Amino acid sequence: MNISDEIKSRVDIVDFISDTVNLRKAGKNYTGFCPFHQNTKTPSFIVFPDTQTWRCFGACADGGDIFSFVMKREGCDFKEALQLLARRAGVTLQEAEPQATQKDQQHQKLLELQSAAAAYFHHLLMASPAGAQARDYLAKRELTAETIIAFQLGYALDEWEALKSHFVERGYSPELLVAAGLIVERDDGSPGYDRFRNRLMIPIRDTQGRVIGFGARALQAEQVPKYLNSPQTALFDKSATLYGLDMARRHIRAADQVVIVEGYMDVIQAHQRGAKNVVAQMGTALTEQQLRLLKRTTGHFVLALDADTAGQAATLRGLNVAREALEREQVPVITARGLIRYENRLNADIRIAILPEAKDPDDILREGLAGWQKIIENAAPVIDFYFQAVTANLDLNSAKGKSIAVQELIPVLRDIGNSVEQEHYIQKLARLIHVDERTLMAELKRGPKPRPASRQQPQPARPDAPPAKKDLGLPKISPNTDVGLEEYCLSLILAYPSALAVANDLLEQQSISGLLVNDFKGGENRAIFKSLQLWTASETPEIELLKEMVDDVLRSRLAALAALWPHRSSIPTEKISRDLCKTILKLKLRHIIEQIKELDFLQREAIENQDLKAVRQYMELVEMWKQQRKLLEQMSDALTLVGRRRAEVNM
Ligand SMILES: [Zn+2]
């Protein structure tokens, strides 16, 4: 039994979910309100003890095993879900490779040291006579003792070797202190003196609340810089960290919105004054990694910028980089024929709140939470901000100015999900530069559309593949043997990476979405598929590359999947793609059939409770899924027919 199976056998999904969701027994299953979307009227969330799975029939339209539940709830990856559930199950996770263990030991030591350093600084702030100046500063900023303790603020003594000797005496090596960024390295590489002196110390934590570095604020006017951060270390990557996220995550999820401010103190003060969905970037422009990190929890971002920052070109550039890097989502769009087509949309709503001149967030919050909330509510879509920023320094009457405005703004407009909104901005731009709307629309349609990883053009068949022989069929594993359908599908992609794009295109031609993460139920399989999506889009999808992309806890599973197809490249690509396409359809159909069955059950229950509104809702859902099922079955039949005809021709 592998580790995730062992965990599944030890942790009952009903027990686990009912820790956080109020579940009611209904027949042999359990229902409740979905923890992932707003719903208070009809319970749309259901847990099935027989299969140890869950599903939301409401807005989420998602479901899966205990791992996918944890990944969704915590916004974490598979490895983190595994760690959380292993703790719960009392299972010890073993490291796959000794090398990793050694790296982990160093990692662990650094974490220990940072945590000890935070406690050391905190003690100096709270209890040492020398900390008086820092305490005065905090009193002036009106921070309460409760806040100071919650954020574990501290003080670094105004001495060259206070921290160094404190920790060396306690058995920490000077080299480790350097590696943690707590003491500086001399030019000759030997350990030097304390990095932080006479500063207010602000521990920076990762999403799990572990101290990974420090921000340090000067306490005297002549000290430079005003803020000094820990350097880049094995633990601390400034561009991938957001200050306060460990405290704010819960509140960000509840509000489905994150407010990003500029400074550490802004975050601390905001939390104290009740605005708890607030985090800070780390002194640089917002990075792609930071947005991705937040993206796990919410798609709604508000950047609260002071008037100066908002005006800087760097802010705009940073935002642009981040916007371009953000993942696109496949959203269903109803076509004129009444079918569903999937389009790529920027899966995030970024807004800018510009703070009143010469005020920082605390000044505003001091006057009450309502004023702050109003500013956040009135945040303008980032597009408006772009318009203003791009056009501010252009002469829009000149041909050059017009052309620059079009060049800069059209890519931004292309990302707008809502076509009404898109038109609105096209009109706005047209008015602004006195160019015909239709010209701009044509420009917009002409440009490159972003394509997600799995939608790449099909690769030509490998030239080195041996000619297909007639007697070569698919290997003897099929979806009907003990290899699950999901695993079969993954192994097929693993052996024939170029088949995924072809299969997806085949599906899309029939207005059926290509293979999606949600088509997999198991958390492990979801995680592997995510890596496969990226991998298949890479220029040379070699297995070594994939091994690097996959989380180490998933490597053995990956190896098992790869072993299902020991002799690849001997089967015609076309046959493989068709088989993959059929497998994807089977996966989707299985999903739909399950949902219809489950809805049936919910419907019966609603009838018993005489909840007519719910009955109607469930009926509508059943109808919708039945239509989808028909569409998928038709395509599946058509594919089988094509396959049979070809086989006959070849005989
Ligand atoms: Zn839901």
Structural summary, described in words:
The chain has 651 residues and is α+β, with helices and mostly antiparallel strands. It has five domains: 3-89, DNA Primase, Chain A (Alpha-Beta Complex), CATH 3.90.580.10; 111-234, DNA primase DNAg catalytic core, N-terminal domain, CATH 3.90.980; 245-378, 3-Layer(aba) Sandwich (Dna Topoisomerase Vi A Subunit, Chain: A, domain 2); 398-446, no CATH class; 485-650, no CATH class. The strands form five sheets. It has a five-stranded antiparallel sheet with strand order 1-2-3-4-5. The chain has a five-stranded mixed sheet with strand order 13-12-14-17-18. Helix 1 (3-10) crosses helix 4, helix 3 (66-74) packs across helix 4 and helix 26 runs antiparallel to helix 27. The longest helix has 39 residues, at 612-650. The protein is globular, with a radius of gyration of 28 Å. The two termini are 44 Å apart. Mean pLDDT is 81; it is low at 330-344 and 449-482. Zinc ion is lined by residues 34, 36-37, 44, 56, 58-60.
Task: Name a few traits of the molecule.
651 residues; alpha+beta; DNA Primase, Chain A; DNA primase DNAg catalytic core, N-terminal domain; Dna Topoisomerase Vi A Subunit, Chain: A, domain 2; 5 domains; 5-stranded mixed sheet; 12% strand; globular; binds zinc ion
